[in-house]
């Protein structure tokens, strides 16, 4: 099953199902929530109970063509976004596994524009395409072998990373800026992807292939990543763990770029790039 | 004014004003939000309008002695906790260092009387305390110039930046600052002192005791990048929201380990006293006292370990 957050003309954003027939809104099922993030978290927590009605809606609920709605990030403001330092460049290269926190406000969705921070020209920014784990919590001290209990589903994450001065983690700080954490286009439930090790992650910059790697080549497995994250923190429903990236194929982002990120069985996320500083509030 | 959250008799978090040694429940003036964090954000956003009624309540409302109530962290779950890296001169004569920040796990907040739980995890070799001034923000604020810093600051609170160390006193998780994000590693409180009561946040006296032994003892005038610059820096990258927090960093001269059974206590004069206890399922033991390792910036440690650097110490005591 695939979940999205979508908006139609003049209506508030709502949670929906992405089906072969189009997008089916879940408003009638969920009642009122104060945000689409809170609504998606309720779907995740109540998924097992809601499943029969979700299946009914997927089969016969009123559907709108995808082209008639604006998809938004399926998790507009996660409580936490953890970005893993895992790499996918072969068994010889295995730096220690660590994680950094990205700002919840870095999230943007399909069709939106990455706005690069206004910093000096010595800095460059690259778009790291990553598999995102959508968490069902609370998960604490989850052993690597039990990782599935903490994972509700999968999405695509772009960890736009700063390249330059690494002193004191200055690269990580700049990468927390708004719009540098695109996410989507949907959440695919875990049952549809029995083994994420079979997934392939690809990206294109202006149509030119860039990254292309297999999750199976990870320096640390999905399970090991869940174990470390939940050793340090409590993973909560609606949190995101981005599983690291390959360093092969990354090129600096430039004004006017079009980026495509695709993970099989999840979907394709298309984004713009702007180097023009966002206007002050 | 000093604002706090406390646990009412029914266990729910309620907003309060703290007077000298008592607390006045102001939940009749500030409706509870969906979460205690939202309640405090409502209070921050509506403060100017609420102020006369809050002052009246503080003067005339039913007073509960502070020792009879359980205070909670005043910001139980900020959307962002932005922490400064290496932001005190520590009395050294040297070139300034560039300002930088990291994000700390906002789910790690604990409050007065709570327990700091060291993890059942042995990759970090030691866990230490850092005593810090916390700047409570109001927003949305973006691209704030340092001259306008007060427009984004609601008040101040006390914060302990509990930290897992990789080697020496360097934070475990090089570059990522992961060693600072373990659950319960963000003690906060005991209250928020509104900005009008603190004339200069870079003239506050910070003290910290471990089992009654003084460890940190510094003034925030030693801050390398001062509060106005911190607001400018953070708001250049992110939108500051009401109830977000900037933690100003610590003076590392008083660092020390935290371990099983200890009571740690932070006092920022003009804000208040925050005390917690520490538990460790592994009952690890480190030498008690201020950290005096090779990379310590404690003056006695510098003279002992790096005599060739000792001439760089200013105001040596």
Structure characterization notes:
The complex is a heterodimer of chains A (281) and B (317). Chain A is of the alpha+beta class and 281 residues long. Helix content of chain A is 16%, strand content 33%. In chain A, strands 1, 2, 3, 4, 5, 6, 7, 9, 10, 11 and 14 form an eleven-stranded mixed β-sheet that branches. With 317 residues, chain B is α+β, with helices and mostly antiparallel strands. Chain B is 13% helix and 31% strand. Chain B has helices at residues 36-45, 47-60, 227-237, 299-305, and strands at 2-7, 13-18, 22-25, 63-65, 70-72, 81-84, 101-103, 109-110, 115-117, 126-129, 131-137, 153-160, 163-165, 186-194, 205-210, 213-219, 245-247, 256-257, 263-268, 272-279. In chain B, the strands form three sheets. In chain B, strands 1, 2, 3, 4, 5, 6, 7, 8, 11, 12, 14 and 17 form a twelve-stranded mixed β-sheet that branches. In chain B, strands 9-20-19-15-16 form a five-stranded mixed β-sheet, with no helix packed on it. A three-stranded antiparallel β-sheet of chain B has the order 13-10-18, with no helix packed on it. The longest helix of chain B is centred in the N-terminal third of the chain and has 14 residues, at 47-60. The model of chain B has no long low-confidence stretch (mean pLDDT 95). Classes of the chains: A alpha+beta (281), B alpha+beta (317).
Q: What structural class do the secondary elements of chain A suggest?
A: alpha+beta
Strand content of chain A: 25-35%
Question: Count of DSSP E strands of chain A?
Answer: 16
Rg calculated over all Cα atoms of chain B: 19 Å
Q: What's the pLDDT, averaged over the residues of chain B? A: 95
Portion in helices of chain A: 10-25%
Q: Treating each run of at least 4 consecutive H or I residues as one helix, how many helices of chain A?
A: 5
Q: What is the string of SSEs of chain A from the N terminus onward?
A: EEEHHHEEEEEEEHEEEHEEE
């Amino acid at each position: 099953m695939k979940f999205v957050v979508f908006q139609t003309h003049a209506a508030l954003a709502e949670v929906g199902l992405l089906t072969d027939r189009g997008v089916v809104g879940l408003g009638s099922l969920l009642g009122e929530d104060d945000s689409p993030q809170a609504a998606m978290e309720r779907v995740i927590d109540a998924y097992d109970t809601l499943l029969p009605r979700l299946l009914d809606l997927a089969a016969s609920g009123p559907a709108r063509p995808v082209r008639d709605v604006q998809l938004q990030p399926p998790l507009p403001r996660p409580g936490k976004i953890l970005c893993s330092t895992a790499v996918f460049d072969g068994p010889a290269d295995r730096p220690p596994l660590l994680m950094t926190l990205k700002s919840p406000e870095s999230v943007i969705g399909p069709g939106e524009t990455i706005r690069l921070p206004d910093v000096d020209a010595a800095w460059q920014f690259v778009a790291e395409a990553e598999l995102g784990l959508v968490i069902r919590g609370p998960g604490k001290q989850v052993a690597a072998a039990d990782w599935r209990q903490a994972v509700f589903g999968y999405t695509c994450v772009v960890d736009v990373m700063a390249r330059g001065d690494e002193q004191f983690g200055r690269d990580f700080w700049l990468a927390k800026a708004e719009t540098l954490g695109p996410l989507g286009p949907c959440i695919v439930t875990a049952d549809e992807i029995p083994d994420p090790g079979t997934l392939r992650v690809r990206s294109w910059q202006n149509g030119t292939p860039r990254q292309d790697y297999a999750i199976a080549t990870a320096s640390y497995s999905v399970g090991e990543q869940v174990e470390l994250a939940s050793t340090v923190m409590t993973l909560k429903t609606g949190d995101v763990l981005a599983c690291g990236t390959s360093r092969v194929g990354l090129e600096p982002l430039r004004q006017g770029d079009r980026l495509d990120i695709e993970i099989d069985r999840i979907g394709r996320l298309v984004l713009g790039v702007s180097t023009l500083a966002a206007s002050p509030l | 004014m000093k604002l706090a959250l406390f646990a009412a008799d029914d266990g729910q978090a309620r907003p309060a004003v703290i007077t000298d040694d008592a607390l006045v429940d102001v939940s009749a003036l500030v409706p509870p939000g969906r979460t205690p964090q939202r309640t405090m954000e409502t209070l921050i956003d509506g403060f100017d309008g609420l102020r006369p009624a809050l002052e009246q309540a503080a003067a005339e409302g039913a007073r509960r002695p502070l020792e009879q109530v359980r205070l909670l962290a005043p910001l139980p779950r900020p959307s962002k906790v932005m922490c400064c890296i290496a932001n005190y001169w520590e009395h050294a004569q040297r070139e300034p260092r560039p300002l930088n920040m990291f994000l700390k796990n906002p789910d790690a907040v604990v409050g007065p009387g709570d327990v700091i739980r060291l993890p059942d995890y042995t990759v970090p070799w030691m866990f230490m305390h850092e005593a810090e001034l916390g700047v409570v923000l109001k927003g949305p604020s973006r691209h704030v110039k340092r001259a306008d810093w007060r427009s984004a600051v609601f008040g101040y609170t006390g914060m302990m930046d509990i930290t897992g160390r990789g080697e020496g006193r360097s934070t475990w998780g090089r570059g990522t600052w992961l060693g600072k994000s373990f659950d319960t590693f963000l003690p906060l409180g005991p209250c928020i002192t509104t900005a009008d009561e603190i004339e200069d946040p870079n003239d506050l006296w910070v003290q910290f005791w471990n089992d009654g032994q003084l460890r940190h003892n510094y003034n925030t005038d030693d801050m390398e990048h001062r509060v106005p610059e911190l607001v400018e820096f953070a708001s250049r990258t992110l939108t500051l929201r009401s109830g977000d927090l900037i933690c100003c960093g610590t003076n590392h001269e008083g660092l020390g380990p935290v371990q099983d059974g200890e009571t740690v206590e932070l006092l920022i004069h003009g804000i208040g006293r925050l005390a917690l206890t520490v538990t460790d399922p592994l009952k690890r033991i480190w030498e008690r006292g201020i950290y005096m390792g090779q990379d310590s910036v404690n003056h006695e440690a510098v003279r002992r370990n790096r005599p060739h650097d000792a001439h760089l110490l200013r105001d040596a005591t």
